[in-house]
Amino acid sequence: METLFFLIITLIAIISAILVITCKNPINSALALIMTFFCLATYYVMLDAPFMAAVQVMVYAGAIMVLMVFTIMLLNVRVDATKTHSHKVVFGLIIGFFSFINIAYVLVKSQAALPTGPYSGEMIKKIGHTELVGREIFTNFLLPFEITSILLLVAIVGAVILAKKKI
Q: Which CATH number goes with the domain that contains 56?
């Protein structure tokens, strides 16, 4: 039953990810990306990481996507109605197929999928996801966390400045 649910969520995630890059309207593309984020949150729940699922929904599907949709609307992005060339699509599909084969080979043959790290599954259940994530972010990863927040602030200010020049 769990495998069937995983396959259904995976199919939805793949379809919505394809819609992100194939939709002509940027708002429809953003909505498809939100669906992909919800599928990723479902994966986190299936991996017994409810805190990460909640963060995925609140931060990415919520705040970041609202910011992206706001930027799309603020910059007044138009839909380009030009005809796509079939040779470009075929070339992109070939590159995507070989990239997928390469990534699948690396994941199967390497030890990237093996669980490593200082925390075992029992320790995570004992201490809790939230405390461990908070401890890591605000001790070992404080500088990257702050740099990310500054970069997001600069992106927001840049979008407002670009939009104001057109008014």
A: 1.20.120.1200
Using one digit for the tens of pLDDT, what is the confidence trace for 2-12? 888 888 999 99
* SS3 category, 15: helix
Task: Tell me which residue range forms the domain holding 64.
Answer: 2-118
Q: Which residues contact 68 (CB under 8 A, 6 or more apart)?
A: 30, 33
Are residues 144 and 75 located together in one domain of the fold?
A: no
Q: Same structural domain for residues 94 and 34?
A: yes
Instruction: Tell me the pLDDT tens digit for each residue of 78-124.
Output: 655 555 566 677 777 788 788 888 777 776 776 655 666 777 778 87
Assigned token pair, 114: 């093996």
Q: Coil, helix or strand for 143?
A: helix
| Secondary structure E strands in the chain | none
Place of tokens 């093996």: 114
